[in-house]
Amino acid sequence: MSALVEALARCPLVAILRGIHPEEAEGVGAALAGGGFSVIEVPLNSPNPMASIATLARRYGDRALIGAGTVTTEQEVAAVAAAGGRLIVTPHADPAIVRAAKAQGLIAVPGFFTPGEAFALLAAGADGLKLFPAEAASPAVLRALLAVLPKGTPVLPVGGMDAMTIPAWRAAGAAGFGIGSALYKPGDTPQVVAAKAATLLDAL
């Protein structure tokens, strides 16, 4: 069982901490790890994201898969690895970034929207796929994709995922869900994040 599949089996919700500041990372990470989250992503368009990734990896890397989102260059892949991150998530379908992540020994979950993109990314070595933006698709689309993708391919819808939308996507076969603003908004305290996390976990 891959590290990604194992983490999603423990908790299929991926925390996307877009906009978090490094000084907030430890407290918010504690709320998430304490709540059972096993995958935490810091988008690289956050303030000083490598510092946040380093803090989260140092404190919670033994309990959760820590990494970066909105990765768009091979140089960023190397920086995430140097910060202690183990996960690379992209907003787009770029096989070169997948190959760079695998060369660094990292887990790659690139973004895709079409079957052609999905198969190209899997051929490059992707460990899972991020269906993005999921708001522009539907659970029926996911069900159709899973019928043709290699059996066992983890597909995670991202965009518009919250306590109301998760059940239908789960029923369609989603292996996990990227959760952004429904879980964390810049400035949220650890207590607020913990409460949101509990609501989302209940939706499962």
UniProtKB/TrEMBL annotation:
Keyword Nucleotide-binding: no
Pfam families according to UniProt: Aldolase (PF01081)
Keywords: Carbohydrate metabolism, Lyase
Pathway membership, UniProt: Carbohydrate acid metabolism
InterPro entries per the UniProt record, alphabetical: Aldlse_KDPG_KHG, Aldolase_TIM
Highest taxon of source: Bacteria
EC number(s) reported in the record: 4.1.2.21
MF (Gene Ontology): 2-dehydro-3-deoxy-6-phosphogalactonate aldolase activity
Subunit description: Homotrimer.
UniProt family annotation: Belongs to the KHG/KDPG aldolase family.
Protein name: 2-dehydro-3-deoxy-6-phosphogalactonate aldolase
